[in-house]
Model the fold of this input.
Amino acid sequence: MTFKELNLSSEILKALDETGYTKPTPIQAKAIPVVLKGKDVLGCAQTGTGKTAAFVIPMLEQIAENKLRDRQNKVRGLIVTPTRELAIQIGESFSEYGKYTRMNCTVVFGGVKQGKQTDSLKKGVDVIVATPGRLLDLMQQGFISLRDIQHFVLDEADRMLDMGFIHDVKKLLKHLPKKRQSLFFSATMSREIIKLSNEILDNPVEIAVTPKSSTAEIINQSVYFVDKGNKKNLLLHLLEDQNLNSVLVFTRTKHGADKVVRVLNKNKVNAAAIHGNKSQNARQKALGEFKDHKIRVLVATDIAARGIDIDELAYVINYELPNVAESYVHRIGRTGRAGAEGTAIAFCDATEKPYLKDIERLINQKVKVIDNHPFPLVDVNAEIAPKEQHPPRRNKGRGGSSTSGSKGNKRYSRK
Ligand code: AMP
Done:
């Protein structure tokens, strides 16, 4: 299958050619024809599969055609996504694939002043990519109307629910025209997700490319049992291996992320943190430097790292295990993407053992235990961590960002 066989316009084909993509990924091959026919889609796919292009390309095609027909300036497309980073990346995809079309796309997210965003809205845009909070805010202020939306995408629906955006999403739905095309993407399909999708989609075509556990199967996973107080020493010990040249480390809290960065920097390991408390510029800078290999270790909380697309990320370290097993799958899914090799290392103290059990149940496999290391677990009776720390409350990590930020390309073609 080639992009040409998907009946795309010469403008889009030219742009795709310049990106270096040689053929559609499986989700693109499946979704693009269906979306071009105007059907609703229920897509089960993770980031890393090429799903952004699977909805951006046909949206560009359809909107360009409609615009040519009625020659009116109105917001015809809306993509709602949980994090600012994802919103920016989707906006970049629009610019990249649509650079020879005359489509205007604006990215809208919180955490930054709204002036630049409202200025570009005032000039008129065809498509808005948004995080839910700022979108509702700007709607309330009268800067955005969803009256003319013909194409609506809800991206990363599962994470949207995890982050407590369900009420915002439901509010948005009330403002969308009944007659529209809707695409709904989620990495996982729980009962709650299916219920939400039923409220949005009309007779959708179901497209699935990555079954939930497949990420877990292709990634080389291991766990180190270690006391909480020794995790930093274990991390430094592992980082003595220079093969670990680009490592994403997950902590449960923002405070924890900052602490790890301080320890690493003190020990001459270049590291930076990204989480909701950092200014958007600081987050984009850290991400950019990590992608450019100027920073060796990026320490992130779940929310900040969601959807981040980093080329050649071979190592993920779970410094703290998440108390929701699905987050583990999302975390380790940052590596080993689209067939690339990946290694996921988990640090587990005594309190986190129940989380490990949950994870192993979810991924349906035992994680290999590495017991030959200098900091074995001693305090086996440490108090068990409470279970109800998750999901994160709403507003945490709600979007805001600059429109810069580099985008990893051509990951899919990597072997
Ligand atoms: P996504 O799942 O949308 O986050 O995309 C993951 C990565 O795959 C991004 O870096 C895209 O630039 C890249 N990508 C998307 N489509 C293709 C394609 N057809 N061939 C090669 N790489 C692609």
Observations:
- The domain at 219-369 is CATH 3.40.50.300 (Rossmann fold).
